[in-house]
Design a protein that fits this description.
151 residues; alpha+beta; Rossmann fold; N-terminal domain of TfIIb; 2 domains; four-stranded mixed β-sheet; four-stranded antiparallel β-sheet; 3 helices; globular
Length: 151
């Protein structure tokens, strides 16, 4: 995704499911630049993302949920200096086997993500609440960023 082998070939590029932000800032910028290059003029890059404006109203240091017969426990912390949510995931299978994983995700504010998109060349960048497509605002459920490549 950081080096898509396409040049002006698509009407849209889509990055959904919170999959933007797992790299460092330079690599995340490469992802956006790669999408920009792959788009035709007038093409749109859609990013569905959690942001500080969306996540902190309900941020939990610890949560758990079931996936099938397994229990998933997530311990979260926020690194304000780096703007990243660090997650330690433990999966407990029915037989008691435990598997652990770590995740680290950069949370861009809407303003930061907009600046990143403009910085790689997008002409127009809009933010919408992903639930109802109203303008993005503090307390939106998620950010749907729509970046349009000029002609």
């Amino acid at each position: 995704m950081r080096e898509l082998p396409f040049e002006s070939e698509f009407d849209a590029a889509i990055n959904f499911g919170g999959s933007f932000g797992y790299f460092d800032d330079d690599e995340n910028e490469r992802v956006a630049a790669s999408a920009y290059r792959a788009l035709l003029p007038g093409g749109r890059y859609l990013i569905d993302a959690i942001t500080p404006e969306t996540i902190f109203r309900d941020f939990k240091d610890r949560l758990w949920f079931e996936v099938g017969d397994s229990l998933v426990v997530v311990e979260n912390s926020y690194d304000a200096v780096r703007g990243r949510v660090e997650g330690h995931w433990t999966i407990v299978d029915p037989d008691g086997t435990r598997t652990s994983q770590h995740s680290s995700m950069r949370l861009y504010t809407f303003a930061e993500l907009r600046a990143l998109a403009v910085g790689v060349g997008f002409d127009r960048v809009d933010g919408l609440d992903s639930d109802d497509l109203t303008p993005f605002h503090l307390g939106s459920s998620r950010l749907l960023l729509v970046a349009t490549k000029g002609s």
